[in-house]
Amino acid sequence: MSCPSCAAPAEPTDRYCEACGARLGTAGRLTSALPAAPCTGCGSAETAADGFCDGCGRRRPAGRERTELELPGVAAATDRGHRRRRNEDAVAIGRTGGATVAVVCDGISTSTDADTAATVAVGAAVDAVLVALDRGADPAEATRSGFAAARAAVAGLATDENRANPPSCTYVSGVVTAGTVTVGWAGDSRAYWLPRAGPARPLTEDDSLGAQLAAAGVPVAADAGPDAAALTRWVGADAGPVAARVATVDDATPGRLVLCSDGLSRYLADADRLAALAGGQPAEPPTDQPAGLVRRLVRFALDSGGGDNIAVAVLPFPIPEGGPYR
């Protein structure tokens, strides 16, 4: 076998690549990336590094139009929605030892190959977080490692041809351990904490011009338009030396961590409304399982218009039993 990150030879029993340190094996790691497959246009199995078919020149999408991912204690899904031509959101989940991990990235649609940026970012991030946790890093340190890996991977997509508008995405991640809930982010993808008892609350603040003005006490009209939504931090070669903002719930009581792109939060921005929807109704199936809540939230976004790509991940606290994932 070989390392999926650097192609160096590896033994089936190896947990890490001796050449680059990447985590080997996928038992505790899933992403929304499309697996290698023949071109749907001409059947060619050869795809160039830029994502275009060598046979017919057709562009191969980086991620699936819609998919659901589930491991014990963590679930995620992404959907193209009703109006976008392709899905530029991506999700990844993982579990190792006593921790669950999820990453949501939203490709910035005005950038080149936004779907590739998001897909590359979630894969690099979840691998780096799992490696860091396996090596004894605390959740905040592992969160920063995941973001740094995503940033490097997306920056590596820049070429002479796209450098004026390189592939870019937003980013939010969650790590749940036996004692803490930790999130990291850049951009306007969000994390919400929904405790079983007590008020729900957002754990992230949008990195946007409108949010920045509001934090400074400057009134921002509800109809301020796209300028207010302009991002001030993101992941990409043109983003500068950005680092993850990190927040931790140290005194977490039983609850659920929800990560999402703005394909959901545009319809469900209020934490209390999100918690009410997550709670379900007595006559409906229970939503304690993360996959059930993920489906409910994606369906809500679709039924509300589905105007953008949707990505959602749910991580319960405390972590349900399951595994092994080492």
From TrEMBL:
- UniProt-listed PROSITE patterns: PPM_2
InterPro entries attached here?
A: DZR, PPM-type-like_dom_sf, PPM-type_phosphatase-like_dom
Name the source's superkingdom.
Answer: Bacteria
| Pfam families hit by this protein | DZR, PP2C_2
PPM-type phosphatase domain ranges (all copies): 73-317
Q: Please give the Gene3D superfamilies that the UniProt record associates with this protein.
A: PPM-type phosphatase domain
Q: What is this protein called?
A: PPM-type phosphatase domain-containing protein
Native organism is Virgisporangium ochraceum
